[in-house]
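Predict structure. Chain length: 506.
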Amino acid sequence: MGVSVLLSRFMGLIRDKVISYLFGATGDSDLYFAAFVIPDFINYLLAGAYFSITLIPLLSAYFEKNEEDGWHFFSTVFTWVTLLISAVTAIAFGLAPRLASFAAPGLSQEALARLAFFLRIILPAQVCFLLGSCFSALLFLRKQFLVPALTPLVYNSMIILGGVLMRHRGMEGFCWGVLAGAFIGNLCLPYLAARFGHGLELRFSIYHPGLKRFFVLALPLMLGQSVVVLDEQLVRVFGSLAGVGAISWLNYARRIMLVPVGVVAQAAGVASYPFLAELVARKELVKFHQSLNSALRGTLAFLVPLTIWMMAVSEPTIKLIFQQGNFGPADTTRTSQLLQIMLVVVFCWGFQQVLGRAYYARQDTLTPAIIGTVTTLISIPVYYFTTLRFQVVGVALASSFSIAFYTGFLSLWWLHRFGKEAFTGLASDFLKVVVLSCISVFPAILLVQFRFIDPDVHPYLEALFAIGISGMIFTLIFLLLSRFFIADLVKPILQKAGPLGHLLIR
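Prediction complete.
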C-alpha cells in the first residue's frame, strides 16, 4: 500500500504537471479544480471516504459466522448504496448550474456556466467510486491489497490520457478522463478481482438485520463533515475569493504537501486498520495500544524530518515539477510560499490518519465525526476572515490551523476516554526528532541558497541538484545524530528497510 500511495502521488504530480504545463495557473485550471467541490462533497456525504472502514468489521463478523448470511448482508448494503448514490447524483446533475455558484462563489457568470458543464461530466464518477468501494472492502477483508493499490494508478493515468488527447478543448479532456478512470480503475478492476478471485455472490436485496447496524456506524460519518475530508473543498471554495490563479496555486502546493502524508501516514493507517480491528475484536487491548503507539511513533519519526527538509527545498521542488510552459517563475514563488505554510502541520495530518482509524477499530465513528464537524464549524469563519485579510496566504493559514486544531482535539479526547497508554513517549520523541531535524536542515538550507549551477542557464538542473545534494546531506547528518539520541526510534524502521537499512544501522 505504501508503494501504491507513493506511485499514485507521483502520478498525481505528473497529472498536475501536465495541467500546469498546458494551462498554468489560469481561470480554466481554476474551474477544473473547483469542479471537484460538489462531487467530493457528495462522496463525503455518503461516507464514501470511510466506506471500507465502516463495512469491513461488519462483513468480517457475518462471514465468520455464516458465509451465506455474509453475502446476504453485502448484497443488501450494495443495493441501498446503489440506490442512494444514483439518486443523489441525478439530483446534483440537474442542479449543476446552482451548485456551481456554491462551489466557487468568486467566479463570473460565464465561468460558472463552464464550471457547471465540467461538474456534469465529473458527477457520475461518484457512482463508480462508491460502488467500487464495496468491492474494495471485500478485497481488504480478504487481505488482498494488490487491486486496491492499482486503482489510483489507473485513475490518474486515464485523467492524463484524456487531458492530453483532448487538450484542444481546454480542461474538458481532463474531466472526461476523471469519468473514464473512475469507471475502469475504481469500479471495474475491484469488481473483476472480487468476482474472479475468491468469488462474488451478488443479488438484489433490500433487507438484512445487519443493515441497521451498518447505518448506525455510517450515519455519523454521513452527517458529520470532518475538516479533514472537507479541507480540500474549503481551500477551493475560499480560494475562488482570492483572485485568478489562487485555486491552482493552492492545489499544486497541497498536492506536494500530501505526498509524505500519503506515503507514510495513509499507508500506515490503511494497512494497520484490519489488524487493529482484529485486536479489538479479540479484546486484546494491551496489544492494541502497543500497536497504535508503534504506528504513531513510526509515523512521526518519518514525517517530521521529511517535512522539515521539504520546507527547505520547497522552491526548487515547485520549480522542478511545475515551472514550465504556462507556469512561470512568479507562479513558482507563490506556490512554494503556500507549500511551506501547509508543510508545518503535515505531522498533524499523519497523526490523525492513524489515530482516527484507532477510533474506527473500536467501532466508534461518532466521536471523530462530532469533533470533525465542530472543528469545521469553527474553521469556516477562520477561512473567511483570513482570506479577506491575507488573500491566498490566508487560505493556506486557515487550512493549517484547522488540521492542527482537529488533531489536538481528537488526541485530547482519546486521552480522556482511553488513557495515555497509546501516547507513551510520544511527546519526548517528537521533541527530539524536531530538534535533530532543525539541526540537520541548516546545511541543507545553505546549499539551497548557494547557487552551484546558474539557474538562468539550467534552471531545472539547478533545482534537481539543490534537492538531491541537500537531501543527501540532511539524511546523513540526521541519521548520525539519530544514532546517539533516538536510536530506539529509528532502528526498527531501518531494520525493515532491507540491506540499505542494515548498512545504515552499522
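Summary: The two ends are 28 Å apart (CA to CA).
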